[in-house]
Amino acid sequence: MFGAGGGTSSYEEIEHTDLIVLWGSNARAAHPIFFHHLLKGIDNGARMIAIDPRRTESAAWADLWLGLDVGTDIALANAVGREIIAAGLTDDEFIARATTGFDAYAESVEPYTLDHAADLTGVPAEAIRELAHAYAKAPTAQLCWTLGITEHHNASDNVFALIDLALLTGHVGRYGSGLVPIRGQNNVQGGGDMGALPNKLPGFQDVADDGARRRFEDAWGCAVPAEPGWHLSQMFEAMERGDLRALYVIGENPAQSEADGTRARRALDGLDHLVVQDIFFTATAELADVVLPAGAAWAESEGTVTSSERRVQRVRRVVPPPGNARDDIDILVDLARRLGHDWGQPTAEEVWDELRSLSPIHAGMSYRRLEELGGIQWPCRDEEDPGSRFLHGRLWEDPPRGPKAPFTPVEHDPPKDELTDDYPIRLTTGRHLDSYNTGVQSGRYRSPRRTGGTIDLSPEDAASMGLAAGERARVISRRGSVVAPVRIDRSLRPGLAFMAFHYPEDVDTNRLTLDEWDPKSGTAEFKATAVRIEREP
Amino acid sequence: MDIRLPMAAATVDERRAVDRILGPPTTGWEGGERRRVDGHVATGGHAARARRHLLLPVLHALQDDIGGISDGALGYVCERLTIPPAEAYGVATFYGLLSVSEVSPTVIHLCDDIVCRTSGAKELFTALADAIGPEGSSDGTRTWHRSNCLGQCDAAPAAFVQEAGVGRRVVVRADLDRLAAGPIDGRDPAYAAIGDAVLTARFGAPDPADLDAYRAVGGYRGLRRALEVGPDAVIAIVEAAGLRGRGGAAFPTGRKWRAVADEEATERYVVCNADESEPGTFKDRMLMERDPFSVVEGLTIAGHATGATKGFIYVRGEYPDAEDRLRAAIAAAEAAGYLGDDVLGSGFPFRIEVRRGAGAYICGEETALFESIEGRRGEPRAKPPYPTTVGLFGRPTAVNNVETLAAAVAIVAEVPGAADTKLFCVSGDVDAAGVVEAPFGVTVRELLTVAGSSHPPQAVLFGGAAGRFLAPAEWDVPLGYGPPSPPMGSGAVVAFGPGVDMDDIVQRIAEFFRDESCGQCVPCREGTVRQDETLRRLVAGADERGLLDEIAQVMRDASICGLGQTAAEAVSSAIALGLVGGAR
């Protein structure tokens, strides 16, 4: 957002902020370390408002929970924006000085009255009003979100709706106030930062930026394409078209993590050549022609990782990879040599130093300084730069440095997998504390907390369907069906069901989900599937 | 939060007991019916967690009405107060008067502590074991347990009886028949005074809850004067009188009030520590039962002096009569304008809330008392910070003993001799056990004479189980604060007659501390257990004096609170005096 893909704030700020808004995030289960920081904030007196279709373990901590219908976040956010404007609670000075496009935004949210939003979202108007006033009046506020916002076909629009609220109220670019997309893997931030994106070079430099591209071309001695490549969802479509014939998968398990799993596996099967580099023999690896066992990134590998607060930290190898497994850099360098490019035998630090010479936001982060300071938050532009606790402080300068932040009007657009009489139940998916994504890393050890794959229903739905806890039910979507035992969950309401996706061997949830993806970000609508549920004889 | 409720549901009666304290649930999220709107909105958070302090009152309601706390009942409590069941279970099991393991219509707590066990308790134990079964057994309607000192040493042996749905009562001079009988035993107060009766002046009143009678003999003159002269002057008066805390720690009262008054704060509290549980001590009970208005007036004066607008009286759960009298006095005081938004038209608001202890000696420690009021296990806090800075609910708080407050009233009301008088509790091998009011400088021998002692005792324990045995030479030392007087403690004098088995008594003291240790810190948790075990070996003939000394030193030096710090005093003194271990 605003050009740089990272959360604006540091973790410590949530410990000292006045208001925490947790929107589309069950951080208690999915981001437990971050949630510790959040709990410290609550302990220090911060109020917390949670917005989530389910009253999750995270929402149970909140002073106020708004249980909106799945996929109605823009309606809610726009109503909050409209109410802030109508109540005269906007930060007019900040808007005038640091933003553009307010008038178009104000016009776009005008139809989203509290009552209209209550109709669209199911949340009582009074609660929406309370959220609006609390957010606008809080001296500092952290607006946090994860996949409840981004695993939708209109993910980017959802994010814009939240950014607009921060711009209305000046809750960005200063200590304690910010926008916090909490990242799911320990280094997914780092992956994007290093350029593992189809349209960005390392350091978020756009491929279309001639100057940046030329610097990389000079350093690497080859041409770099000026057009963006395909993101993951586009790759799958290309596979189906026959335009993508070979795939090299590193540390990802798309055979089980993609929406519409049946379709995804068929596409992978149709490849001429599939190479998988991973620490475990995943379901994707089973489909591969060649498997390259890799060292684990956290004990067997030397390098850096980057967290949700943009902090780059050192990780160190303490044991060598076992058996035939090899370090990722070794594998890539060996492969490059066989493809005709000799990169020598670079150490992790040498690779990092090359990155620093090409990525301005990392330039000052030598290994020595990373060790000295215990990690540094980008941007860190030179060896004197201590790093950046929060971003966009420039918007508070008078006049603000750099481009003003734009309001982006967006419209409510309900989920694509429509609810009908044949598919009347809205299924949403998510995570449990004890398991991790497709269960590759977490399924190998026992946990007393682990429930296994279940279809979670509200007590009312279970009763009306005549299903008791533990009974087997078949969950059917337009794309497939799975069988799972029933679990009764009071955090759900009639018409809303939930499944985790951690147990694809037993309950392959992604057979049900829809891969309708956001054209801007490529993420699929994992959060909104239409299903019906029947007793399984 | 991750609250996983037990599968059992609460019964209608259990819900009613809880709702009587909390009011009925208003949403599906706190145990009410799930309404449509509950699927889209919920509140909680700080507001819900702020009700945590109601946990003990709710658990009391269940114990009082139902006779115990079942899984289902606990689940409903947790749902109402958003407390994880493991935590609520940890609180409930901390307290001796709350039962989660059984629901019993009648529970009998039979005292076998140092005075009762020499006054017939052992025979009663045998009788009850024959009638019902070994300690802890139930015959379907009655369950019985051994109890530490119930504060009824003037009328031993004693029992405390909980009857679900009926009430709680104390039985004194107990026998099997009296245990079975219903209504409260009335008894004449046992007290005497050497010199002027100041604190005991009103003990003979026919109706201690009669406000007019209280006022007729000078009641509320103290508060009136306080309101006239103002907080600063009151503190100066109390400081000048040299009043020291009467609970055992003897901290200067005026200095404590000044410390709280000087704190920059929007909220302050005053707390009356009525958790009197020191074996051999019953003076506070007597004050609360016989002169409850003096406690109420004293706390009001304390509130006015410190700038607190809210006071708590934390009364031990085994004192039902004292609690009833206090509540009656508070109600009468409110009705007459001595409590409320505008006390006696002075503009000073002050209210008092009574909180009931649930059977834990450690809750007499002021910070453990705070924890208990706040709805937690009674585990003391590390000091500093001291209560005058960070106290109840984190606010500046002055904690005062019952007798301290009664003395403060008399001092501010300019009653002659108010600053120099002390209540002593004399019990054990004496003709007439009871409270003896005497000026400082009185001796143990003089106190025993008043109580009627036909022969010199074999041993005298001074200051309760946390005090020590006195050498005969010390029986003639003037008692007061500071040498040559032995430490005052709670002012309890227990005399042990020639026939008493002192090995048994000293072991019983070690058992007491082992039982009452809250378990939080290693020196006390381990030390009290090892002291108990080691003492047994000593009594059996082994020379364990060196080890006992070491244990004593560790507890004294390293325990978090006074319980651990004094747990070895009596045992050490008994060994030094040759009272135990056959070295006589």
Q: How would you describe this protein?
A:
The complex is a heterodimer of chains A (537) and B (584). With 537 residues, chain A is of the alpha/beta class. Chain A has three domains: 171 residues, Dimethylsulfoxide Reductase, domain 2 (3-Layer(aba) Sandwich), CATH 3.40.228; 190 residues, Rossmann fold (3-Layer(aba) Sandwich), CATH 3.40.50; 111 residues, Barwin-like endoglucanases (Beta Barrel), CATH 2.40.40.20. In chain A, 32% of the residues lie in helices and 17% in strands. Chain A has a six-stranded mixed beta sheet. The longest helix of chain A is centred in the first third of the chain and has 15 residues. The mean pLDDT of chain A is 94. Chain B folds into four domains: 81 residues, no CATH class; 75 residues, Glutaredoxin (3-Layer(aba) Sandwich), CATH 3.40.30.10; 226 residues, Rossmann fold (3-Layer(aba) Sandwich); 75 residues, Up-down Bundle (de novo design (two linked rop proteins)). Chain B has 22 helices and 15 strands. Chain B has a six-stranded mixed beta sheet, sandwiched between helices. The longest helix of chain B has 18 residues. The mean pLDDT of chain B is 95. At the A-B interface, strand 3 of A face strand 1 and helix 2 of B.
Structure described in brief:
The complex is a heterodimer of chains A (537) and B (584). By secondary structure, chain A is of the alpha/beta class.
Biggest sheet features of chain B = 6 strands, mixed
How many strand elements of chain B? 15
The termini of chain A sit apart by 50 Å
- Just name the CATH architecture of the largest domain in chain B: 3-Layer(aba) Sandwich
Unreliable stretches of chain B (pLDDT < 50, length at least 5) are: none
Mean pLDDT of chain B: 95
- What fraction strand of chain A? 15-25%
Q: How are the strands of the largest sheet of chain B arranged?
A: 6-12-11-15-13-14
- Distance from N terminus to C terminus of chain B (CA atoms, Å) equals 61 Å
Spatially, the strands of the biggest sheet of chain A line up as 17-19-18-21-16-20
Q: Which secondary-structure class do the elements of chain B indicate? A: alpha/beta
Percentage of helical residues of chain A?
25-40%
Instruction: Report the major sheet of chain A.
Output: 6 strands, mixed
The rough form of chain A would be described as globular
SS elements, strand count of chain A: 21
- Computed CA radius of gyration of chain A, to the nearest angstrom: 24 Å
Shape of chain B: globular
